[in-house]
Amino acid sequence: MAAKKHPIFDTATTLGKLMLFLGVSSICGVLIAGLMVPAVALTGNTATSSINFFDQLPDDMTVGVPAQSSVVLASDGSVLAKFYDQNRTEVKLAAISPFMKNAIIAVEDSRYYEHGGIDTKGLLRAVSAMAQGGDRQGASTITQQYVNNVIIQTYAANGEKDKIKLGAAKTTGDKVREIKLAIAMEKKYSKDDILQGYLNWVYFANNNYGIESAASYYFGVHAKDLTLPQAATLAGVVNSPTYYDPVANPDHAVSRRNMVLDRMLDQKKIDKKQHDAAVKAKIDLKITPNQAGCATAVRGEYFCQYVTNLILNDPVYGKTKADREKLLAQGGLTIKTTLDPKLQDAAQAQFANFTPMNNNPDKVGQALVTVQPLTGKILAMAQNTKINAPKGQWSSDYNFAVDRVDTKGQSLGGAGGFDVGSTIKPFTFAEWLNDGHKINEMVDASVRKYPVGYPWVNTCGTSKGIYDSNYPGSTDLQNAEEGWYRRLTAREGLYNSLNTATMYTASKLDLCNIQKMMTAAGIHLGENPNKPYDLSNTSSLLGSGEVAPLTMASAFATFASGGVHCDPIALVSITNAKGDKFPVPSANCKQTIKPEVAAGVVSVLQEVLVRGSGYQIPLNFPAGAKTGTTNDSQQTWTTGFTKGLVTSSWLGSPENKNRGNNDKLIAGTRIPYVDGATYAGKAWQGYMNAVAGSFDTGAFPAPPASMVNPIVVAPPTPVTPAPNTGNDKGNNTKPPAPTPKKKD
Fold first, then answer.
1. Which parts of the sequence belong to the Penicillin-binding protein transpeptidase domain (predicted)?
2. Among 212, 269, 293, 367, whose CB has the most other CB atoms within 10 angstroms?
3. Looking at the domain assignment, is residue 446 inside a domain?
């Protein structure tokens, strides 16, 4: 701030005269900075002692940045949510209406640009009036009020409310110190700087600190757009924010506003015509309620919760969690995120078709989360509950889409993932190709027994699992439908989601390498992200492991991007009120899977939507997907992609993960069997068809020809060729295409 030069008063001379007049009363003390002073002259000795006392007081006060609201923004700059202890947005003096500046000076300190921090004339006038038995009058300047506000609000922001002194609690020393600080402030800062600071610090009732927040709350405008009657109303509030509160006491507010207008007219800051029109104006409030925290977010409240947890958990934003909470509530952070409002709204709208918030008696949970390949950006994160739902709707503290904790064990507010069912199968297929096997290589899907002691290969540890009806309590391995226990291609096994085909391919691989393939795609357990997907029991190859929807979307994005894995990211930038930038997590995009392997997997997942387990949910663009359904339909999934978007859609039971969802009320009806394509898939289809066209919908690269078909060794030529009888037409006929699966 620029240094101040004062045209009229030498502050040392002024204070010397003031102290000679005021001194210290032996009866009640001198309330120098207040509104009451003794109306008696003091002896020279007393005055000399007062001056010595004054000289020994500190005269330096650091005016820091006031506690300011933090704001969370979507990718387009729209506000998602605010956080604050004191609802304040700091603005420059040039961004404040001239009416407001003139009104506050007229009513609070008419000689503001003439005095040097204290107004001797005003103070003596107040003393004289009270000495003659008149009413108590104000004598505190804007600079003195500013000092008082800074002291009080700094204590409050630092959690030191016990140090705050108001009114009669202040000692004479406290008040004299404030006077000296006011004088020091006037020496250090310009008048405009002090006025700017005052208007940003002063309290306007209803948890509104500073003129920008007050203008927004009471009138729905920025401070620069305040009209004359609006500015006069707010200028009147600061004298007694409770008594002149325009919401609670509108009559008081109007009376005070008109008094402010009278002062402005007397001081020639407005003319008679402006005055009369403003006095006649209705107060015309347009209240914009103060709302703080993710529960009040405009959209994406669970995404907001996820973002704030990322900040509160990361030491880069403060040494302790208390420091980070203070930064969020007081630091004036601008937090720009990756959330796309159009996608978020489209995702949220899907739930009305299946599990609406106001008609979901069975508490069937549903979530959609979208990431962008090659960037890791989380573009949408929606679910069919609210953090604080109105009566009749379902409230949940849990974010269905994310892990329970981060890598340091600190809460992310997530449900911890759900059994993923058959959506895990593409990763075994990816390792099948990575190991040198072919897409159209024959596998024996008739093998259903994997008895105790089956020789699974796992160079990372041990794996076991029993599928054997000869063993008590076990059964042979099952597919969702009969008719598929036969030899077929690995391609058919994946797009038809055959358990026996997946288990057979795994039996020819090192399970350690399957696990490494999953890790390369970013898959980890939702309860503990430090742990890889657990293959110690072979049932996990078929999806009996809990993974969060965000993790599944990110993993499938690795396939959609040609093998480039990116960590999912929610933060684009964070800056504080001073413009300082904080680091944000990187997506760490790396080539973790061979491009040809990713292309091979994608080529088969595209067939899922044509003739496989997702044939009912095709998109209008080139796309691939995998459905998943656990036993008794406890958890159902569709995770799928275009070239530009990847979305994981989940429907299940978040509060009781072992409860099946068959016969539950979904989409206004109850059906006996729910699979991954039924509702999770239909939500995925409707959402992706609505939004994917705004992103890359190009064709995917084909896998190399050498990956598709195994080399066929021609049989030796027989010595005597068999005669052609003309009866082998059946040998030249392609087998009929299998009936599309209706279950997963």
1. 483-634
2. 367
3. yes
Does residue 369 form part of some domain? no
Q: List 365's β-bridge partners, or say none.
A: 652
DSSP category for residue 68: B
Domain of 212?
A: 11-280
Q: Please say whether the beta carbons of 660 and 668 come within 8 A.
A: no
439 CB-near residues (< 8 Å, 6+ apart): 433, 489, 490, 491, 600, 603, 604, 703, 707, 708, 709
Give the C-alpha separation, 345 to 690, whole Å.
Answer: 11
- Burial per residue of 412-427, b for 16 or more beta-carbon CB atoms within 10 angstroms, e otherwise: bbbbbbbbbbbbbbbb
Q: DSSP per residue over 584-641, as a string?
A: ------EE-S-HHHHHHHHHHHHHHTTTSTTTTS--SSS-EEEEEE-GGGSEEEEEEE
Determine the distance from the C-alpha atom of residue 631 to the mean position of all C-alpha atoms in its chain, rounded to a whole number: 34
Q: What is the pTM of this model?
A: 0.83
| Tens of pLDDT, residues 14-37 | 444 444 444 433 223 333 333 333
pLDDT per position as a tens digit, 239-251: 999 999 999 999 9
Report the domain count for the chain.
2
Pairing of strands 365-371, 378-383: antiparallel
Residue 742 lies in a domain: no
Q: The CATH number of the domain where 464 resides is what? A: 3.40.710.10
User: What backbone torsions phi and psi does residue 299 show, to the nearest 5 degrees?
Assistant: -155, 165
Give the pLDDT confidence of 38-93 residue by residue, as tens digits: 333 333 444 444 444 445 445 556 666 788 999 999 999 999 999 998 899 999 99
